[in-house]
Amino acid sequence: MNQRRFDLVAGTRDFYVDPVYYDYEFKERRADVRWYTQRYLDADGPALELGVGSGRVALYAARKGAEIIGLDVSESMLKRAEERIKHLPKAHRDKLTLIQGDMRDFKLDRQFNLISCPFNAFQHLYTRQDVERALACVKAHLAPGGLFLFDVLMPDLEYLSRPPFQRIEGIRFKHPTHDAHYIYSERSAYDPIEQLNQMVFEYTLSDAPGAGPEQEEIQLSHRVFYPAELEALLHYNGFEVVSRFGDFEENPLCHDCESQILVCRASTSPGK
Questions:
Q1: How far is Cα 143 from Cα 110, in angstroms, rounded to an integer?
Q2: Structural domains of the chain in order of their starting residue, each with its CATH number
Q3: Are 199 and 221 contacting, i.e. CB atoms less than 8 angstroms apart?
Q4: Strand pairing class (168-175; 180-191)
Q5: Average pLDDT for 6-31
Q6: What does pTM read for this prediction?
Q7: Beta strands in 73-141 (DSSP E)
Q8: Sequence-ordered list of residues with C-beta below 8 angstroms from that of 165, at least 6 positions apart, any chain
Q9: pLDDT digits (tens, 9 = 90+) for 165-180
Q10: Percentage of the chain exceeding pLDDT 90
Q11: Per-residue b or e along 221-242, where b marks 16 or more CB atoms closer than 10 Å to that residue's CB
């Protein structure tokens, strides 16, 4: 497979250009929202959420009374979150503060008892250097004894072993942005050396011509993290894993779990 076919710029940007569709796509995903919200509510003081996006997690938490500072690199997603803040009860609209920034390079001049990075956002850290820069920022902003929470996908070896860019046909659905019906299909390719998975999602109009764009294509790139590798990256960057789960009901991690959910804190060992 030719690594040059991987477009990490598009894979970082495309999936977040249309936040209305993004919110539609994940409207039924609630277990992680409830889990992070409870952790925010249990924190002493505001939480920092990296990759806040359209506010899918943070807005629910703010509605419940948690205080969150949300950081994201995507202007379109932050604009969507700003619009959604207006629909919160007035007493809770100041519970969520939004900041545009890169999780690999930010400085807020304060520390937090809890920092999170929900819903696979950590998988946009494509290289070891990206991971180390992000973890250094987290550590600098984590108060003594504070926790860092994040989740990433558990590697699915059957999925990653599919023939590169083989088209998989999906469902017909009504696109919330274009108000027209589309047929969804997906292609993906995995580079086992760089541990990068490049996904391409295609949407082809199935209504009469002119009802919406004839075709759209968006890309999504993920770095694949294996459990022992992830634990080692955390260890050598000054973190220890407090808890590790395979789902948001906090069941143990297993080979067929969808996610790896980690609760970490800065290591107190010398030299870490």
A1: 9
A2: 3-8+157-223 (no CATH), 18-154+226-266 (3.40.50.150)
A3: yes
A4: antiparallel
A5: 96
A6: 0.95
A7: 96-100, 112-117
A8: 5, 187, 188, 189, 200
A9: 999 999 999 999 999 9
A10: 96
A11: bbbbbebeebbebbeebbbebe
